[in-house]
Design a protein that fits this description.
With 245 residues, this protein is α/β, with parallel strands linked by helices. It has 8 helices and 9 strands. The chain has a single domain, classed as NAD(P)-binding Rossmann-like Domain (Rossmann fold, 3-Layer(aba) Sandwich), CATH 3.40.50.720. The longest helix has 29 residues. It is found in: Cytoplasm.
């Protein structure tokens, strides 16, 4: 028996990194996973895993989300993972950068939750897990102004949903990772003016001495998606190797 047997889980940003590891972990625990992403080629690789269905989806596109909702009859767990890491201070953040980041990191969750929450309410049961970050209201980080602001908003959104619907069988929590070794992180390192120094800078803040892995974050997703965490809602769960201590 898997820890997630019988559960239908819809998730965004499943094509790579934390999303991919989480989709695979969900499926191995017996869930029926509807994995979405805008990266169709990488997303299709997940079809090799039993229990995973894939759908190409832009989570900033309301029409696409509503179309998918017509195809999904029931949903037990909604995982909002899609996000974008923007760099710079507020003086380096143009309005277009602010709008893009808030659209991907916050508005997408608003659209997904508003669309799929009614299906959960109809069943008087549901579980929402949002991706935030330790760089948020938990901890400030250099040159992460709009990113940190957006992830703080995710924590606020999470607590709001949890408070408003706790009496109707809905749970809502968020996960706050630190520095995780993902394709996104490697792209930021290699895309910097001095990749070797960028790697040293990232490693210097790892109090546990290494980056986290996508699989370690996926374990936390599985726990929060399972009935083992049934008494937990409205909280942010930090997985950062001690960075925020």
């Amino acid at each position: 028996m898997g820890r997630l047997d019988g559960k239908v889980i819809l998730m965004s940003a499943a094509a790579q990194g934390i999303g991919r590891a989480t989709a695979i972990a969900f499926a191995k625990e017996g869930a029926k996973v509807i994995a979405t992403d805008i990266n169709e080629s990488k997303l299709r690789e997940l079809e090799a895993y039993p229990g995973i269905q894939v759908r190409v989806l832009d989570v900033t596109n309301k029409e696409q989300i509503e179309k998918l909702a017509k195809e999904v009859m029931r949903i037990d767990v909604l995982c909002n993972i899609a996000g974008f890491v923007s760099t710079g201070t507020i003086l380096e953040c143009e309005e277009k950068d602010w709008d893009f980041t808030m659209n991907v990191n916050v508005r997408s969750m608003y659209l997904m939750i508003k669309t799929f929450l009614p299906k959960m309410l109809a069943e008087k049961s549901g579980n929402i897990i949002n991706m935030s970050s330790v760089v948020s209201s938990i901890k400030g980080a250099v040159k992460r102004c709009v990113y940190g602001t957006s992830k703080a908003a995710v924590i606020g959104l999470t607590k709001s949903i949890a408070s408003d619907f706790i009496g109707e069988g809905i749970r809502c929590n968020c996960i706050c990772p630190g520095t995780i070794d993902t394709p996104s992180l490697q792209e930021r390192i290699q895309g910097s003016p001095d990749p070797e120094q960028a790697l040293k800078d990232f490693m210097a803040r790892q109090r546990i001495g290494r980056f986290g892995t996508a699989e370690e974050v996926a374990h936390l997703f599985v726990y929060l998606a399972s009935d083992e965490s049934a008494f937990m809602t409205g909280r942010e769960y930090i997985i950062d190797g001690g960075w925020s201590m």
